[in-house]
Design goal:
- The structure is a homodimer.
- Chain A is α+β, with helices and mostly antiparallel strands.
- Chain A has five helices and 13 strands.
- In chain A, β11 and β12 (227-236) form a beta hairpin.
- In chain A, α1 (26-43) runs antiparallel to α4.
- Chain A is globular and about 45 Å long.
- Chains A and B meet through α1 and α4 of A and α1 and α4 of B.
Chain lengths: 249, 249
């Protein structure tokens, strides 16, 4: 039984959502969880177009992903989301992906802010776009683990990525899922094929635009307890546009 | 009522399947039609894994796309496919995308061959993998419009694309949809935003592999009747890996 602030939908994993490990790729996982939140918003008549009419849009600032496993092609899964809590400026949302027997394979926490289109700055969240979600108004918003910075001397690999036309979605912004593929693609294919992502923290700092060429930088994998740790950043003209930390097994 | 050689499935268009025109992107259209053929194959117990056990795989050689319109985010569509006809070496398959009221927005013809994994060459289609489809055995297979070549002096724009880890699907090959995005991304964003693709013919000649950098070449748009015509090719080390012709309005 779902609470009023929760929403779920079924999905069957397709071959093109999978990567060479034959499991759901991380960038498609992000697309899927964003589509469940978009579906919830649509069901409550506060989707992206409605929010845009109010003069702004939701912007994600941070994600924290916990992964025990990822589904494979043909797997029937349940995608879910909950609008957990919000205060004047921040909305905290959870996402999950469950397998057919109800085991949670992925849990994601995300922090959202409202950007005013006129000022291009963060603004107080308008009541009209948060009330329909039955989220809990709180003073203190839950914290999300933030990635630590990547020191210049720790950078092991750099790879350029030009923002392409099809990286832009129908909201005229670079789809956030591409940050994940730019970050992870900078790791060697052999590493990606033989390691499974178990945790990732990511912080989005600045937008990137069509035609810009970003530089994806990553450290050498280092042991951290029983996991391997990689540190990532997206740089453009000396500015850091996104940071992430990943743990692998 | 579907014939024995036909298969359909419903689909709802998501925001990440759309491009800046706010309609389904061409590369995602290709992913969707490939997933309906994969679903049909799975329903008949002759999916990619079963075919691989026989020692080979289906390879697409040509597509011909006819488009009257494309669906937008949230649209409920029907994806369909028909295994129309086959002979010793070639299998001809049709695909369609219909809107909720049953109008066909997209029709695609595709030609498939069977590649033997041991020889890496085309081989006679094994009975075991074609019979379950109730396709019609014919002497003369229907023809598919082939793209005309792009002359060197007609090349207007060249753009490099490195094959990335996430371009590889769970079958360990570059997902064919990426050829479409490499080809079309080489056109100016402004052209793509203000023109609608109405017809495309594409011929795949050679595979590309992870880490290779292909060059996507395109001619200046030229009037052709009441349409605009663009001519595309994918080059790697002097070899043409794919050719395409597009008509726009």
């Amino acid at each position: 039984m779902l609470a009023k602030n929760e929403f779920e939908m079924p999905h069957t994993i397709t071959y093109y959502e999978c990567d060479p490990t034959e499991k759901l790729s991380i960038d498609m996982l992000i697309n899927l969880i964003m589509s469940v939140s978009e579906e919830q918003s649509r069901s409550l008549a506060v989707d992206t177009k409605v929010v845009a009419k109010i003069g702004g849009g939701w912007v994600i600032t941070n994600y924290e992903l916990q992964l025990t496993d990822l589904p494979a092609e043909g797997d029937h899964v349940i995608l879910g989301t909950r609008t957990t809590a919000y205060n004047k400026y921040f909305a905290f949302r959870e996402f999950w992906l469950k397998n057919e027997t109800g085991d949670e394979l992925v849990h994601i926490n995300g922090m959202f802010v409202f950007m005013d289109f006129a000022t291009r700055k963060m603004a107080a969240i308008p009541n009209a776009i948060i009330e329909p979600f039955s989220s809990k108004q709180v003073k203190k918003i839950p914290r999300i683990d933030r990635p630590q910075k990547l020191d210049t001397e720790a950078i092991d690999t750099k790879q350029d990525y030009r923002v392409r036309y099809f990286d832009i979605d129908s909201n005229q912004h670079v789809n956030n899922a591409h940050y994940f593929s730019w970050m992870l693609d900078a790791l060697p294919a052999d590493f990606l094929k033989h390691h499974q992502l178990t945790k990732m923290t990511i912080k989005f700092e600045r937008e990137v635009r069509y035609g810009q060429t970003i530089n994806s930088q990553v450290s050498q994998p280092q042991p951290d307890g029983d996991k391997l740790f990689t540190n990532h950043q997206i740089e453009l003209d000396g500015d850091i546009h996104a940071q992430a930390n990943c743990w692998w097994q």
